[in-house]
Protein: Kinesin-like protein
Organism: Hibiscus sabdariffa
Amino acid sequence: MEKICVAVRVRPSISQENPSATFWKVEDNRISLHKLHGSPISALSYAFDHVFDENCSNSEVYELLTKDIIHAAVDGFNGTAFAYGQTSSGKTFTMNGSSSDPGIIHRAVNDLFQKINTISDREFLIRVSYMEIYNEEINDLFAVENQKLQIHESLERGIFVAGLREEIVNTAEQVMKLLESGEVNRHFGETNMNVRSSRSHTIFRVVIESKGKDTGSSDDYSSSDAIRVSVLNLVDLAGSERIAKTGAGGVRLKEGKYINKSLMALGTVINKLSDGAKQRAHIPYRDSKLTRILQPALGGNAKTSIICTVAPEEIHTEETKGTLLFASRAKRVTNCAQVNEILTDAALLKRQKLEIEELRRKLQGSHAEVLEQEILKLRNDMLKYELEREKLEMELEEERRSHKERDQYFRDQLMMIENLSSLVSDGDGSSSQDSMESPIEECNDKGDGFKTPCFKAAPTAYVAKRSNYTQLPDFSPLPDSFSNVADEDTWFKINKGYITNLDSLQTTAARKVQSFPPEDVTPNVLNKNYKKELQNLKRQLELVTEEKNELQRKLAEHIQLNDKLKGEMSKLKKEALLAWEMPQRLSEFVASLKDIYEEVLSKMQSSTFEGKPSTAILLSGTSKMGSVLFSTLETHISNAIDGCRSLSGNNSLIQECNEALSERLEATITSLILSEAASTNDKQAKPPLCSCNSKVAALSRYHLSIIVLFLLMILGYLVSFFRILIF
Ligand SMILES: Nc1ncnc2c1ncn2[C@@H]1O[C@H](COP(=O)(O)OP(=O)(O)OP(=O)(O)O)[C@@H](O)[C@H]1O
């Protein structure tokens, strides 16, 4: 937005012979009414962008007021410069000038072509037209036959006069000639105020089209494809006039009425525009052809300058005041000028592409940024869960491996116990094939990567102690089992919510994260793609979450199962330790038995001196049996203590020893019975020699009973010992 540039120009006084009582004094950009030889009249001082006194030339006015507009027009801005003032105030002189001091139009045309010639990267097409509004009718000054032309408006051309001849010009000279020809067709008339009074408003219009010269760069649409079109209006208005002063009558009177009417319309538009935005609901541009044609220049898309000419004579003070009031209001009017470009199809296409890119950038910088952040967060979540899942899988695998190792250790321990069990079974002779079977069997060899041992009910009383394990316990995951799940906050602290290189972390082939939409999509499609990708990511996240939960559940199950197995292992270890300690204890016990046995044996040896044959037989048999028995026991106990696991290989030997001992015991007892029977027959045939014989017999029976009981006791201990070893 920029204000209309307004200047006031005071023409030289014409009537020098009638000195006035007041005069207009110009100081810098201010004009004030002063009493002759007196102080300024209060409230009659005006300031403008420029104030030119009577000594100023058209050159100065052009340089300060119009030149910038002309140059802006070359760059593509609409421009308007017009002169406003009462009749005979110097409007035509300012716009057209004289041969010695060319006016603004001439200077503008020259400057225009000079400026164009300095621009080498653009091609220009200049068209000029010249029209007048005479009695509210538009006439073509280049073609007198074009009368009463109509004003039209279109999107492409804006407000334009239909049928107006436009001449394409290449030089300033061409324009000058055309202007001269057009001046001939203007309506001038003589009034009391001006011998050559303009009776119409004239508008010299220059249309400047420019196009960048093709530099071969397809991307630079602005320099090669876009066409700038600007309209420059140089307007010389007819002057307001008082009929009483002009003495107009007839045609002049009629002309004066139209002139005043259109100028009033112009004043009204300026007043409305200067009132500000609140009261600019309706600007009556259509009230006159002048305001309609100048519409873009008045509050529209143009750079506008107004030169208000005033007559310094006291007789025209009121008209000058009116002009200055008009100028003051015009100064408050703002325009909004912008470069006017017409685009070819190619330029339009390129521009639309650029606009789409710009929109996409804006979209990505606003709403899309939120979506992208959400997608990024989802991606991070998904990757986090992936990492968590992989960690759980690794933990599960580790757990399986340790489980296998413990299982193997468990089996080894069981094997050792089985071997000890088989030794006892061989020892007491009551073992059966069923009792040799392991109480544990593998029952989970289907559908699992590793074998989980389970228990079945055992037939013996010892196994029955563990009958509470015959059914698998409920392995529902406990809350503590989830303690290994990655902590989300920790993860975010580590990653700060972002992963710099997402692609490098896409380790799971199944997780195909869709990339951002391709570049040639529109913003709507872009949004849809973002939402679609968002949904996909959410679905993938749900799948990963479910998978993670399943793995967590399995891990919890394995952990609980392992805890149970650890408990079992602990118990078994204790029992195995007990089993390992048992041979040592039994060894000690057998040693004490051996001492007792040797003591009994020595007592029996003392009995043999009495010549009792049964005692001798008993002593001999018992001594041999005792040596064999203790030798066998000591050998096996020593092997058990040394950790020999191949006891089962000696079962047949033990069996043979047992059988030999049994036979020898049976033979000894049979010998003793026969010896006792013979002794009894001798007693019946012969009376006893002395009372000491009966004592020896009583002693021999006593020794026999002790030895038999002693042997039975040893065998009983052996059975007990090996049964204990089994468990
Ligand atoms: N600045 C000036 N220096 C010298 N002479 C001037 C100046 N301004 C105006 N004049 C002379 O004053 C007379 C009236 O000027 P001009 O015709 O330009 O007035 P105007 O405002 O166009 O009048 P109208 O509205 O009736 O056409 C002319 O003879 C012109 O030469």
